[in-house]
Structures are given as C-alpha cells and as structure tokens.
Write a structure and sequence with these properties.
CATH topology of the largest domain in chain B: Beta-lactamase
Number of strands of chain B: 21
Shape of chain A: globular
Radius of gyration of chain A: 21 Å
Distance between the termini of chain A: 16 Å
Number of helices of chain A: 14
Largest sheet of chain B: 5 strands, mixed
Number of domains of chain B: 3
Strand content of chain A: under 5%
Radius of gyration of chain B: 37 Å
Number of strands of chain A: 3
Structural class of chain A: mainly alpha
Structural class of chain B: alpha+beta
Helix content of chain B: 25-40%
Order of helices and strands of chain A: HHHHEEEHHHHHHHHHH
Number of helices of chain B: 22
Largest sheet of chain A: 3 strands, antiparallel
CATH architecture of the largest domain in chain B: 3-Layer(aba) Sandwich
CATH superfamily of the largest domain in chain B: DD-peptidase/beta-lactamase superfamily
Largest interface: A-B, 52 and 42 residues
Oligomer: heterodimer
Strand content of chain B: 15-25%
C-alpha cells in the first residue's frame, strides 16, 4: 500500500515549497482580514493545516497502484457520502452541504472532484489502446460526471457542481476525444442555455442577473460585487500595505474570509501583489503538468494534469468572481479561503501530485 | 509492439491537448490580469474615491439660531434648552421593549408602530429622538434609570418666545419638509423670511465608520456657526401696551410707525396667538388655533383690508388741489345730500353742514363737499396719487400674507369686472368707500407720506436696513393746507375728533382723521354720527371704526393707525385708542 520510506526524498520539494508560500500568504491574509488578529481565522486554519500534514505525507507515500486499484471504491464512497449528505446533511445558508464525521463538518463534494478524476483516469487508462476516443467510449465518463454534477447541484451548490462537471469534461478532452464532439456540444449548450436558465433556482438566476449588472441591487445581492471591486480597485498598483486595507477592516466586505478573500489580499498588496499571486499559482500549475510530458502512462498523466489544473482553475474562477467577470457562485480560493474541507481536499490533491511526480515509469505499474 | 505504437500516438494526443489547455489557462490568466489592471491602475482614482466615501461619515451638528431683538435689545426670540428621550439601538438589543417600558412608566403616548418602523431604518449608533422630556418625566426616569440601557436623556435646543404679542410678526418654526433639511426651519413671517440670516451654519464631524456605521475614529470637527441676530424696529413696551388697548371682544389692529424713517414701532392685531405652542408641540392648542373661526393667525395690520372711509379724503383733496379743482376759499353748500343723475348721495349729517370750504370739509368730514369735488375728478388721478402715497402697494418687509389692497381705476375695473367706470363710483371712492381696500399699515404709511410731503420712507421692520424713501414730492402749499385741516379735526371745535382734546387735555396734542368703514350699505346718513349706536343692527353688520392720527401735531413723530372691526364710528372707538397710544409713545419716547 505504501512506498518505501526513502522515496520521500524523491518528492518535488520545490513544489512543496511553493505550496507552503501560498498557504503562508493565505495565513497572513486571514490575519489581516481579522483586523490584525490570529483569532478567529488564521489560527484555526493553521491548526487544521498542522493536523492535516501527517495525512498529507501519508498520501504522498501511497502506492500509485493502490490508488489505481481502488479508483472505483473511492467513487462509490463519495457517492455514498453525497447521498448521506442529502439525507442527513447539516444545513447552513440554505444549502445542505456538510455531514458530521468525527467532529468535523465535512463537505463531501470537495472530495468528489478527486475521486471522479481518479476514476476517469483509470477508465481512460484502460482505453489506452485507442488512438482517439469516439463518442461511444466517452458516454460512461460523461454520464458519471453528470450524475455527480446533479447530486451536488441539488444540495444546492452550483459552484462546486460546475467545477465537478468541468473537471469531468477536461478529463475527456485531455484523454483525446475527437475535437468535433467538444465543439459540437459547445454549440448545443449555447443554443439550449435559455432553457437551462429556467431550471436555475431563483436565487441563482438572481446572482447571474446581478453579476451582469450589480447596480440592480447595490445594497443587497449586488453589494458583494460592488464592495469587492471597490476594495480591489482602491488597492491600486502598490496596494495600501499590510493591515492597511480599510474596506476589509471596516467590514464593508462581506464573506471576506471565504469567497472574497482575494479582495482583502489585493486591497493590501495591489496590482503588483495580485500579479505575483497569479504567477505563483501558474507556476504551481505548470510543475506537475511539465512532468506529464515525461510520462507515458495515461493514468499518471491524467491524475497529474487534471488535478493540477483543478487547483489553478478554482483559483481563476474565484478571482474572476471577486473582480466581477464571473457571477458569484461560491468557489473557494485554494489554500487562502478559510475552511477545512477545501483545505483538506486541496492538500490531498497536492499530496497526490507530489506522489505522482515522483513516479519512475521504468517498471510497468498497472496491469 | 503494435499496441505500443498506438499507445505512443495516443500519448502525443494527450500532450497536444495538454498544450491547448495550458494556452487556454494562460489566456484566462491574462484576461484576469488585464481586468485587475483596469480596476487597480486605470480606474484606481474612481475606486479610491468610492472607498473613502464608504468609510467617511459626516455628521452635522445643529447651529444655534440667531436671536431676534426689539429696538432696545430686548429679547423677542431666542434659543432655550430642552431635554429629549433618545434611544440608541447599539446599547441594547432589547431597545424596543425598553421603549415600551418607558412609555408605560412615563406616559409619553408614543406611536409605537411608527417608531419601530422608523427605527428599523435608523443607524445603530445615532440616537433616535423619542419624545421631549419634561422635568417631572426626567425625575421619574432618573428614579428608574437602571431599567433602561438604550435610552438616554439628551439636551437639545428649541426656539423660545418670551412675549406672545410678537407672534403675529415674528411667526414660528416648523418641522423640516424635505429630506435634505435637517432641522426645524422658520415657516411663518420673519422666522421664515429671515431663515437664511438666522439659521447659521451646521458644524460637521468627520469620522471614519465601519460598514455598520459605528464610529472608529473622529477625523476632524468643524464647529457650527451661530446664525445672525436680527434687530427689529419694534418697541417691546409699545407693542405690549398697544395689545392691552385693543378691545378683547373685538377684532382689530393698531399700527404705530415713525414719521422720520418708516420704522414700524408696533403692530398689533386681535385676536392673537402664542408662537410658543408650536415649539412646545402643544398639539391640542395648535389644533384649536388652526380651527379658530376668528383666525388668530391672521395679522389684520397688514393682511386685513377694509374700505378706509373718510380717512381717505385727504387724497381726494390733494387731487383737487393739484388739478386746480379746488379754491380753498370757495364754499360748497351742504344740504345733506348731493345728486348725480337720478341718484342722491348722502352726507353722514342728515341736516347738512351748510357752507363748507376744504378745511371744514376735512375737519367735519363733510361728504357732500367731496361728492361735488368728485363730480369733476378723474378716478385715474385718484388711483395714481394713491399709489404715489403708499396705497395699492405690497411692502416687502418679510411678513407672510402681506397684501396689496386696492384703489380702483378705470383700467382695473375693465380688467377685473369688465365694466366701464361710472362717475357715481368716483363719488363714493372719493370718500373712501366703494372698491377701496386698504390695510391699517398702508393707512399709517399714507399719513406718513402726507406728513413727509410726498417723499416718504417705506415701512421697515429690520432696524439695520437703511430707510428707503419713495414717492413724488407734493406741493408744499397743498401739504400745509391738508395738515392744517387734519390738525383741526382734533384741535378745533366741531372737528370730528375734537372730543379727544376735551377728554384728555393732558395727552400729547395730535392731528388725524376719523373714518367709518362701511360693512354694508345702511342709510348713508347714519355714518359718522356719534349718536349712531344702532343696537338693533347685528354686530357683524356694524361699521368698522377707523382712525389715523399723528403726534405731536405741530412736529409729527409718530403715526398710529387703528381699526376696530364692527366698532361703529371712527371718532367714538378708534380715535380714543389712537390718542392713548400716541400719548404713550410720545411720553415714553419710544
């Protein structure tokens, strides 16, 4: 189940170091979000990180073979978890997203992303022989993706659900589906989107309308976007400086420790800081991706590429939300938003990435 | 081996797809960066301004309103402290229950539904005024203070009017009507017209607030600037004295002005009201006041318009002199009436005045003399001289509902009644009846104009404005003739007000003119008759008693204009009042 201990020295420590830097920026940011106080967010998040760290290294040491073999089991586990959530879940803010496990409120949907990618990686690995993948072979992963999308969407948690669907589609695209199908479905989606609109809940329609025009409701739903843009815009080129973000410290910014944590960062560190942060996340994305070019096993390639893409994609979605180029759908900023499930799932992903980056494909791994 | 070949091809596809996704990711990152550049660099100033506006709160502190003084610096309107029950939402979550408790402990009669509605929208950290607090209520509150965490007693200011006799000139304050107005404002008379002068400039407290409106720190304070004071020409003692001279059961008005500069020294009207009830929010009294049939809010001195009666005759005489229609030595025979066409126009003295020259006509108020004069007079000359001498004018002295009145002309009649003028109407206009409408203040100004020889000071209330003179100069001879006759009214036997000199020989010697303003046409011969005390005539149909006098008669300093509605003849009622007031003014050197 586990690799030999000495293989820990083969881990990509540069990647781990970048992860630490980003987490540390997140800590500083939570500290300033509380007006220069560790309490209540920064200290809690640090404690969680330290608790999760042994698990993190455990995952880096897992045998890829073990992960490959248990791919379907993982998926069934999260399926059970999601159904349990729907039935027994803990409700907060109008949505049932959490179940209590061993004293933790766990958001199963976060782990769905990982399980789905692993499952699909294995599926396409088995189809390795085929040059390009036709529509027929793509139906199963597509159906599985849509099932999980729907299970999360009815919680309701549209943000996470959309991420799950996108990851599924990215796997299919990356695995080599004929280009005609993605292009065709894009056209179909665009043409039926007015019908999809009617399936959205009123609050979701509302969010999209207000995203298109925040001034519709400047003190209500549009308030988030307007205040977030004010905080970010007032940061300027250089930023107001550490702990000098007036909009956040004076509580003008709602949900500043979770979805809008980037506004806090950008108000303090300005355009310069924001570009540096984007660069860090981009480098973090590229390191595992570059490794994929050296690998030939489809399973390994998909795991490395899509999971790395997941973190970067969520990062882009989150900041696009805060700067008003995407509707507010509730996607956390990896390693910077306050919250346990998001931190844990992203740490597991990074551990998997470190694990798979250290793979030496000389020996045949999967049958 | 074959399998490996295809596998290698599929790896190439994966790597190509990977490249596409990286490119897409890079493009998306670039878009996000461009958007950030637009927000943080290009539109930085816009968002910076928004962020400052977000956190900056400007709280206004009310300025102290300027005081109003009489001519001797006696306070007529000032500011006094009051205490209010104020609720602060942030001090207790239970503030709504505390308000209920307060209402039951101290009977404040709060409209609870309205208050809780207003409170919902109210900033947590700004106090919301529930009600004014009387001393008894404050004592009761202090005893139970421990019950209330969110309610405090806060000092505030209200307007204070020490003398109610000035309410009809100074006016009163009202609640703000527009959302941009923060404090109560003058809504009537001088309080209204001098609002800008009196108001002052609010102070500003600039502070940084958080999203809930809680003050984090104060940035700077601009102190409020007190409004300017206003000095009036009115005299406190004369105003108070005059009010006592108006019969309580009659409507009426007294105006006293200074001959030399047009200063209004007193201006009374009965019935009157107390402006303080508006400041003290005595709602029952305010309701009674607004519903009062006698209209106490109505100041008859400048809003009340009556036919002037014989008081108008000097204008007719002056027109006659100017147009050479009168030979002062030539006498007209008064046999009690005069006829024009098939109509008789009666003198108030049934048996007639006999031979009458101009002086006698004014002194004894002979109507026939003026009827004869009117037959030759053009009504437009009357109208034009009247306007020159202060009638038919609205004085801009800051009073609400000040009227213009009317002296008829051919043009006016055509425009308003669409009829041409009849000479018969000139006859009754010349004795001050008919369409003529003048206010007591206008009549006082008319006599000021005559005494000043035509060029007269416009009445004024603001002591610190220079007197403005207006009007065309009269022929000095004409002026002397008229004044001489007016003096004779009081000073010579058979003058209509000669009785004044006999009753009160110690009083200051005055000149003037009696008048009886017709309410309805009774028998023409009944006017001006001292004997006329027709009790059988219903009170409201009785004539208005008018007198305009000046003192001292040889060197006029004061003019008093008196009207007592339904008072009867001018000589019997208005003239003695005017004499007393002129004497008071003269002896007290107001």
């Amino acid at each position: 189940m586990f690799k030999e201990f000495k293989s820990i020295f083969n881990l990509n420590w540069i990647y781990f170091f970048i992860l630490l830097i980003i987490f540390w920026i997140g800590e500083i940011n939570l500290y300033s979000a509380a007006g220069g106080s560790l309490d209540p967010w920064a200290s809690n998040q640090l404690i969680r990180f330290l608790i999760f760290l042994p698990l993190f290294f455990l995952v880096t040491m897992l045998e890829p073979k073990f992960i490959y073999n248990f791919a379907e089991i993982f998926l069934i586990l999260v399926l059970i978890g999601l159904i349990t959530t729907l039935i027994f879940g803990y409700t907060g803010m109008g949505a049932t997203r959490w179940i209590r496990i061993a004293g933790f409120n766990l958001q199963v949907s976060e782990f769905t992303k990982i399980a789905l990618v692993i499952f699909m990686a294995k599926y396409f690995h088995k189809l390795n022989a085929e040059k390009t993948i036709g529509l027929f072979k793509s139906i199963l992963p597509l159906v599985v993706s849509v099932i999980f999308f729907l299970l999360v969407a009815i919680q309701p948690d549209l943000g996470t659900a959309v991420i799950i669907l996108v990851l599924g589609l990215v796997v299919i695209f990356y695995a080599g589906i004929k280009l005609i199908y993605p292009l065709l479905s894009l056209g179909v989606i665009l043409s039926i989107s007015p019908i999809l609109w009617t399936f959205l809940k009123p609050y979701q329609q509302n969010r999209i309308q207000i995203f298109l025009n925040p001034d519709l409701d400047p003190l209500g739903k549009g308030y988030h976007i307007i205040q977030s843009k004010i905080a970010i815009g007032s940061g300027g080129l250089q930023g107001n400086g550490f702990l000098e973000g007036s909009q956040s410290s004076l509580d003008f910014l709602p949900e500043k420790e979770t979805d809008f944590v980037f506004a806090i960062f950008s108000e303090q560190f300005g355009f310069t800081g924001s570009i540096l942060l984007i660069s860090l996340f981009f480098i973090m994305f590229l390191i595992p991706v570059l490794k994929t070019y050296k690998l030939s096993q489809v399973f390994n390639k998909i795991i490395l590429f899509v999971l790395s893409f997941k973190i970067f994609f969520e990062f882009l979605i989150n900041i696009s939300m805060t700067i008003g180029i995407l509707p507010v759908v509730g996607v956390a900023l990896p390693f910077m938003s306050y919250g346990g499930s998001s931190l844990l799932s992203n740490l597991v992903i990074c551990a998997l990435l470190l694990n798979f980056m250290s793979i030496n494909e000389n020996k045949r791994m999967f049958s | 081996m074959e399998k490996n070949k295809t596998s290698e091809d599929s790896i190439k596809i994966l790597n190509r797809r990977s490249f596409i996704i990286i490119i897409v990711g890079a493009i998306l990152s670039l878009l996000v960066s461009l958007r950030l550049f637009s927000l943080q660099v290009i539109n930085f100033n816009f968002y910076k301004k928004k962020s400052v506006e977000n956190k900056l709160s400007i709280k206004l502190t009310p300025p102290l309103r300027g005081n109003i003084y009489d001519t001797k610096k006696n306070l007529l309107a000032g500011s006094s402290s009051l205490y209010e029950f104020v609720v602060f939402k942030n001090l207790s979550k239970d503030h709504l229950n505390e308000i209920k408790k307060l209402d039951s402990l101290i009977k404040l009669n709060l409209n609870f539904g309205k208050i809780s509605n207003q409170l919902k929208k109210y900033n947590e950290y700004s106090g919301f005024s529930l009600s004014r607090a009387s001393w008894e209520q404050i004592v009761e509150f202090e005893k139970n203070k421990f019950l209330f965490n969110s309610i405090k007693i806060i000092e505030s200011k209200k307007r204070y009017y020490p003398y109610q006799n000035f309410s009809q000139i100074i006016g009163y304050m009202g609640q703000p009507t527009e959302s941009s107005e923060l404090y109560s404002k003058g809504v009537f008379h001088l309080e209204k017209s001098y609002e800008k002068h009196l108001r002052g400039i609010p102070g500003k407290i600039f502070s940084e607030v958080n999203a809930k409106g809680k003050t984090i720190r104060e940035i700077s304070i601009e102190k409020s600037i007190k409004g300017n004071d206003l000095d009036l020409t009115l005299d406190l003692t004369l105003q108070n004295y005059s009010q006592t001279q108006l019969p309580l059961d009659k409507k009426g008005s007294i105006v006293v002005i200074s001959v030399s500069d047009g200063s209004i020294l007193s201006m009374n009207s009965n019935p009157t009201f107390d402006a303080q009830i508006f400041e003290d929010r005595e709602n029952n009294k305010i309701r009674d006041l607004l519903n009062d049939d006698k209209k106490p809010l109505f100041n008859r001195a400048f809003s009340g318009f009556y036919p002037p009666g014989s008081v108008f005759k000097p204008i007719s005489a002056l027109v006659g002199l100017q147009r050479n229609l009168i030979d002062t030595k030539k006498e007209v025979f008064c046999k009690g009436h005069s006829s024009l066409g098939d109509r008789n126009y009666y003198c108030w003295k049934k048996e007639g005045h006999g031979k009458v020259n101009l002086k006698k006509a004014i002194k004894e108020s002979c109507d026939v003399y003026f009827y004869e004069l009117a037959k030759k007079t053009n009504i437009d000359d009357i109208a034009s001289l009247s306007s020159n001498l202060g009638l038919n004018k609205e004085y801009d002295i800051g009073l609400s509902n000040i009227g213009k009145g009317l002296v008829p002309s051919k043009k006016w009649k055509k425009a308003f009644l669409d009829e041409s003028w009849y000479q018969g109407e000139t006859l009754i206009t010349c004795i001050g009846q008919g369409y003529n409408q003048t206010s007591p203040l206008q009549l006082a100004t008319l006599y000021s104009a005559i005494l000043n020889g035509g060029k007269y000071p416009i009445p004024k209330l603001n002591k610190n404005t220079p007197s403005r003179f207006t009007g065309k100069l009269l022929n000095n001879e004409h002026k002397k003739i008229i004044i001489n006759s007016l003096n004779a009214v009081v000073q010579e036997p058979r003058g209509t007000a000669y009785k004044l000199s006999i009753t009160n020989p110690n009083f200051v010697k005055i000149g003037g003119k009696t008048g009886t303003s017709q309410v309805i046409r009774i028998k023409e011969s009944d006017r001006e008759d001292d004997q006329y005390k027709s009790k059988e005539i219903e009170e409201r149909f009785k004539d208005h008693s008018v007198f305009v006098g000046y003192a001292p008669y040889d060197k006029p300093k004061y003019i008093a204009s008196v009207i007592i509605e339904n008072g009867g003849s001018g000589s019997a009622v208005a003239a003695p009042i005017a004499h007393k007031i002129l004497d008071f003014a003269f002896k007290n050197n107001v």
